[in-house]
Protein: 2-methylisocitrate lyase-like PEP mutase family enzyme
Amino acid sequence: MADPKLRQMLDAGAFITAPGVFDMISTLVADRMGFSALYVTGYGLAASHMGLPDAGIMTYTDMESRIRQIVQGSSTPVIADADTGYGGLLNVRHTVRGYEAAGVTAIQIEDQEYPKKCGHTPGRSVVPMKDMVSKIRVACDARSSADLLIIARTDSRTTLGLDEALRRGEAYASAGADVVFVEAPESVDEMKLITDRIGVPTLANMVSGGMTPVLPSDELARLGFAIGIHPALGFLAVGQALKDAYGTLAEKGDVSGAKLEDFEAFSKLMGFEDVWEFDRKWAQG
Structure:
């Protein structure tokens, strides 16, 4: 079931910071950090599961099965990327019901044409506004609990301009979206215009190396945003750490100087303490 805490935080005006998680290791680490929410990144799942770009290749089944595992393995409310809803209106209904059954607290649906692309890469196209409005209405009708938040994302800023993105954001809010996500604004001034114009809570996407200025959480809150997601933080950090560790081994044949997690601490993170206790209890003497 959706966790009511996120809606309560939005209603109270509290800012929500959500790091991106993309596998169970990143989930278990982030879950212990005290964040208000975790963000399941479609880019990260496509990269970690398939080693492929975030270009509409991951299916609903691919996403739902991994999101379900992430929800079950964490105690933090989960915001989950659902791309375009994986098809037409019937697909959107199926996706919302499936994500809700998996325990997701907020589901993000975007207005890109299928197959979609990462929101900070070129070549994105969007569907007509009225088609996305219908998707939002179906998504709101499909949920069984009001605690499930519907996040409507528009990717129109890059190709159609900020004015169109703002018009779409307002329309999606009017259609029932709980949160509006205008992807890839290109300046702090544009970010402020978004929060000034949209009549519901707004989300800021913080991608290092992307099109949008990466700002601290307190600055995002000051600008009027309700949620700040950092979808790429985890996999970019892991990618660099792996290059450093593997590069040290390849270059020197020696990892004694590598910066590594303590093996026992990592084993405890993975749940081995339960295994050890089980063995102590049931070991045959």
Summary: Strands lie at 16-21, 38-40, 78-81, 106-110, 149-154, 179-182, 203-205, 227-230. The chain has a mean pLDDT of 94. The chain has one domain: 5-238. DSSP finds 13 helices and eight strands in the chain.
